[in-house]
Amino acid sequence: MTSEHKKSSLVALTLAAVGIVYGDIGTSPLYTLKTIFDPEHGLALNTPNLLGIISLIFWGLTMIVSLKYVSLVLRADNRGEGGIMALMALALNSVSKRSGWHGPLLLLGVFGATMFYGDSVVTPAISVLGAIEGLEVAAPALEQYVVPLTIIVLVSLYAVQRHGTAGIGRWFGPVMVVWFATLAVMGVINIVQAPQILAALNPLHAFRFMLENKYSGFVALGAVVLAFTGAEALYADMGHFGKKPIRAAWFLITFPALALNYLGQGALLIARPDAISNPFFQQLGSWSVYPLVVLSTMAAVIASQATISGTFSMTKQAIALGLLPRMRVMHTSESEIGQIYIPAVNWLQLVVVLIAVVGFGSSDKLAGAYGIAVTATMLCTTVLTFFVIRYRWHLPLALCFAATGFFIAIDIMLFSASTLKLLHGGWFPLLLGTVLLTIMLTWREGRDLVFKNLEKHAIPLEAFLSSLFMAPPARVFGTAIFLRGESDGVPHALLHNLSHNKVLHERVVFITVHIVEEPWVAPEEQVKIVDLGHQCYQVNVHYGFKDEPDIPNVLSLCGKHGLEFEMMETSFFIARQTVISTPGAGMASWREHLFVTMSRNARAAADYYQIPPNRVIELGTQVEI
């Protein structure tokens, strides 16, 4: 690739990253300052406090986003992939299984993921509400229409998810560039009116603010964190864009625009303290309110779209890692493998988002819910990063503590400040996270119990085949394929087929799918074939947690190893497990019943692995846990 092509590709990816990665953090100016100086917090609106708050926001963006995420965390990629699931897998791979860290790191990663789900529910609600609340500035009588209009926008957004974003996605970047340019211009105009706000670039104002305000300053930190929401998204989207475009988009466009706008809003409030009712929409005067409502609503929809897509991606990873039951995953683009749609997740998320909009009713009230979800995920990411740089990169312990300890201290301080809002909305993402954590851990533990039960009653495959071919049954034309779990011996479907039909196909293939703790496995490394004799074969398939399970594709890969398949001569025998809860063993009774319910509603294995339905024969089996 020529240098010109590389440059144009970087520009295109940077533009796309502005649209997808920075929508969340880019819409934070809509509600951050309004929330910080909410009368409920008891923080006086005066010049020293404004200088302190703007200084905290500027240096928070510098340290948390620029230094922590853009400079440090983006380096901790799992074969180019980012996000807390990929980071958890990387951390688990970095420590020995005998070290005792596997359980705590898994729990930490899963908890961080559930907090990301909480964030992805609050983001659409608070962003769209914050944008449409601009109507109140133009005409206070329109206040009663804010929630209904928000509901209409959100329902429309979730309704179009099944069509994918390929069509409108190309407009995300240009719209967000216009958005950030508008933020920067508004900021500069207001800075010119009150240039003394530039003193906030001195970090001493932030320290002085915290020392003088003490408790009320600590409370304000819980709202200051709203300026950093979306930092996790830039790491989660690393696999889509790469590090360079994300860094270029931050330092060249997003960070300057955000810094200028926060400084501009501070300058506006120095000159006109009465604008605190909604400083964002009063930066240019009454003529600009309606255009800003339209532009900010578009930006809020784009921010929401990014978190919805992130939720789909994380759910797919969680299914592959055995943390959630199989669900229907639809691809919405023929060219982009990452563009997926999960109907169950889409509609469940919409229901919870609408509950948040109606229940809280304003961006101010939702702000408390936002802070806890964001800071909890940030803290989990920092702790997992320590294990990666210490045990994978093998950096000196002192350097690891210095690199992550500084950020952990900031994360703990911000999380602690956010917990003060526990009774004012903070309970919402925690409740949501607790429910999801329970579901994920129950599914994982339930699967382990099923595997242990199968392992206990398993008949070793090779020994069984040896005894079977001492007096072989009648063999019939064609190929029989049996899906076989990692801990299984002889598949139950094979035993049932022999018991009922008294025949064996002339060629028998056992397929076992292994999910590795990496995002991708190269196609040439996905398939390993073992010849078991008597025209019987064991095919071991290795997938990463972001790979697309596709058994027909596996069969075509087997052809390259000399094992050819003709689909019309091939039958897939699959044992459909019915899990039965037995009292007094395994998990608590209510968790067992939850697992049984999820198991019964999980997507069928044949459907999940994209096996042609007209080639499948299902045989039932019962498993007690």
What features would you describe in this structure?
With about 625 residues, this protein is α/β, with parallel strands linked by helices. It is built from 24 helices and eight strands. It has helices spanning about 5-20, 25, 30-35, 45-70, 85-95, 100-130, 135-140, 145-160, 165-195, 205-225, 230-235, 240, 245-270, 290-320, 345-360, 365-390, 395-420, 420-455, 460-470, 490-500, 525, 550-560, 590-600, 605-610, and strands at about 330, 340, 475-485, 505-515, 525-535, 535-545, 570-580, 615-625. A six-stranded mixed sheet has the order 5-6-4-3-7-8, sandwiched between helices. A hairpin with a 2-residue loop joins strand 5 (about 525-535) and strand 6 (about 535-545). Helix 1 packs across helix 9 (about 165-195), helix 5 (about 85-95) runs antiparallel to helix 6 and helix 6 crosses helix 15. The radius of gyration is 27 Å and the shape is elongated.
Quaternary arrangement of the chains shown?
single chain
Distance between the termini: 57 Å
The DSSP helix count reads 24
Radius of gyration: 27 Å
| Principal-axis shape | elongated
Mean pLDDT over all positions: 88
Class from helix and strand fractions: alpha/beta
Main sheet attributes: strand count, strand direction, barrel closure: 6 strands, mixed
Report the strand count. Answer: 8
What is this structure, in a nutshell?
This protein has 625 residues and is an alpha/beta fold. The protein is built from 24 helices and eight strands.
